[in-house]
Amino acid sequence: MYSKELIKGTLRTVVLRLLDQEGRLYGYQMNKRVEDLSDGRYTLTEGALYPLLHKLVKDGLLTTETEKVNGRARRYYSITEAGRAAATSRREEFRSFLLTMQTLLDLKPEKT
Amino acid sequence: MIILSEHQVARVQAHLARAGLNEQLSTELLDHLCCAIEARMTTGESFDQALSETLKSWPIRQLRDLQKTINFTTKTKPMLYRASAAIALVAGICLLSPFTSVDHSAPLALDHHDHSSDYAADYSRFDPPTASPIAGVDMKAALSSGFGMRKHPLTKRTTLHRGIDLKAKVGTPVQATAPGKVIYAGEDGNYGITVRILHEDGYVTAYCHLSKHVVERGDRVILGQEIAAVGTTGQSLGPHLHYEVLKDDVPVNPLALVD
């Protein structure tokens, strides 16, 4: 599992990208999806996920709707167009950040 | 797939109730915890086992902290920001107001019409973007294609024109039509070089087919600030500015806001 700092700095990018691809997800589902995709190495703690989701809604990057599923109210999050734009630019920024880090830390691709 | 019974859900709810969360958050977390418990039960745990394991990572104190964090990031922070803006505005008006030095009864006269509450509300309300994105140019005078259904000049298909086109020479400065935060600045497919600004109240403005942008993502901009220059990048037939206003993600006619 990665350190809290790394996850904190990338959470917004990950959540926006996830919703950009999937369109609509609920909180637990995001948690599960990220855990599966990262083989359990990237864990969204709920304590960080929900404040972020509520903030993104407030900023107009996500919208929500509540549906009854299995007798429980489930709050789905969908991405807005502004959210998509933010997702793209954050992803691009991270791409160049990776390249910079590769140079800074002198990382060579591992031989297989 | 295991689905918790009403009785089991009630037991999870009882735990959440002890934290005294607001209804919306409590409902959302209830679903989250129930999903987590169901996932554990799918692997063979009993309900009681799954419940106690799941709640172990959700002590009451942590639940309360979560609510505090959410309230702080979504309410307190923007409120502080808005309050300071409102105070600055009031201070500015007081300084410039002709009443302050002349006659103190004059502003009081307004109270007779009971406008005082309206004024107070106005300071905190965000006005939709009404300025022209090109300084000194009237949007109606420079309009080359309006908002609404139209036959696309390149694709020849009838589609919704999501904004308005303004005639302008390449390099003409483009300005922000309201204060806000740049959420996108760069190449964006058919839109060419594009700047998108997020304003308060769910408004977003977009400026497209630019030749360059002079602000970057994350920048805060003020009304009238130069953000870019007119161009003809992306799917465009000639130099012009495509200007969009979105309210809660839905395109609106920028000219309709002016009237």
UniProtKB/TrEMBL annotation, chain A:
UniProt-listed Pfam families: PadR (PF03551)
SUPFAM superfamilies with a match to the protein in the record: Winged helix' DNA-binding domain
Domain Transcription regulator PadR N-terminal: 15-87
Superkingdom, taxonomy of origin: Bacteria
Descriptive protein name: PadR family transcriptional regulator
Lineage: Bacteria, Pseudomonadati, Bacteroidota, Saprospiria, Saprospirales
Automatic annotation (TrEMBL), chain B:
Entry keyword Membrane: yes
Keyword entries, A-Z: Membrane, Transmembrane, Transmembrane helix
Transmembrane domains' residue ranges: 79-99
GO molecular function: metalloendopeptidase activity
Every M23ase beta-sheet core domain range: 160-254
Protein name: M23 family metallopeptidase
Keyword Disulfide bond: no
InterPro entries reported for this sequence: Cell_wall_metabolism_enzyme, Dup_hybrid_motif, M23ase_b-sheet_dom
Lineage, opening ranks: Bacteria, Pseudomonadati, Bacteroidota, Saprospiria, Saprospirales
Pfam families named in the record: Peptidase_M23 (PF01551)
Recorded coiled-coil stretches: none
